[in-house]
Amino acid sequence: MHLLLTDLLICPRCGPAFGLILLGERIEDRRILEGELGCPNCRERFPVREGFGDLRAPPREPLRRLPVLPDEADPDRTTRLAALLGVTRGPGHLVLVGRPARHARALAAMLEEVEVVGVAPSLRGWGEEPGVSRVAAGPGLPFFSGRIRGVVLSGPGSEPLLDDAARVVGPGSRVVVLDAPTEARGRLEGAGLSPVLDEAGVVVGVRE
Known about the structure:
Radius of gyration: 16 Å
């Protein structure tokens, strides 16, 4: 987890009014390898182990060992995803939730000065490396409002996160929904985003 990502994190339990405070135990090259993130309001602590942050709200069960999410093997798909996000370079943070997180390494290599945050428990098996931060999160997205350059969601499981995705993106930034549920466009518009694309199961909205 990149050190500067901690400036964007909120308490998953208390919400956007409360950020998290880093209690670092091992930091190398501005990456947090071991430590905890603490909330000054509820006093809950969220562990970072081997660079992977567990930002799930309590009560939470121990993370199960899941098969490691494979990298995206098709570079053309990653290039298309970057185009849908409308991002060509940083600085900034992109958030890929669930299956789209498989693009994290390739997208980070493609976009200069961008930190890609993969939100998926199955990323725990990836090693720590520049450009990619790995977390588990729930029930929402643990980021301050208006601070993220782009969010990618996918499939029916994206429905509970549509409003939160719209909340965290800043002006000019996009939410991309792959294999979009039927209500995706209406939900994004209701959250204040303008439609950019709605075809072939892909919905893109931008914060004007």
